[in-house]
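I am writing to request your help with a piece of structural work I have in hand. What I wish to show you is a protein chain and, alongside it, a tokenised description of its three-dimensional fold. Could you please explain, in whatever detail you think fit, how the structure tokens follow from the sequence? You will find the record immediately after this paragraph.
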Amino acid sequence: IINRSFKGKIDKKCFLMSTSGSTGEPIRVLKSFDSIFSILSLSNSKVIRNFQSLKDIKIMTILVYAPETMEEVLTDFLLKVKRINFRRVNALNEVKEYIRELNEYHPSILITYPSVLKDIYMYQLQSGCEVFSPNLIVTSGEIFEVNVRNRLKKIFKGSQFIDTYFCTEGGIIAAECKEGGKKVILENRVYL
């Protein structure tokens, strides 16, 4: 953790991030580039087996991208990496924009908040529009209610859902087990 007065040089193997500051003063943290790809390790082998290489994986995020936050820093990095197909959509856009991007891009992995998925569901109910189903949908940042998930399975047919507990300072702390429902602390990544 780094305070605001830090003026030193940051190693090329690291980048600086900031929390949103929702509890007061934002906290700034140095992270390694290795932490960027840890999200892929959450999916089970059944999902990843369908891909021959990173070039086969198409990742899309629908998040809020505030300066220096995890969402901004990680997605900026992914946009610069040419070996991964990646698209970033702002969660502050209109819902029909999310759906248009999903239907146009056809991501294999979608990373977003449960409330974005709920908005897509509500819009789809009213409009009757088609919504593309990614292989894997990773959620974080909010409580993913069971009744909401069950409704989402009706539009995202065949998608696997993995809900995670994530924070800027620690990265991914817990993720849903394969059977779903309960989160498991990722003991190989964090010590609580």
User: Anything to note?
Assistant: The beta strands are 14-18, 28-32, 58-63, 85-90, 109-112, 136-139, 160-167, 171-176, 183-185. Confidence is low (pLDDT under 50) at residues 43-47.
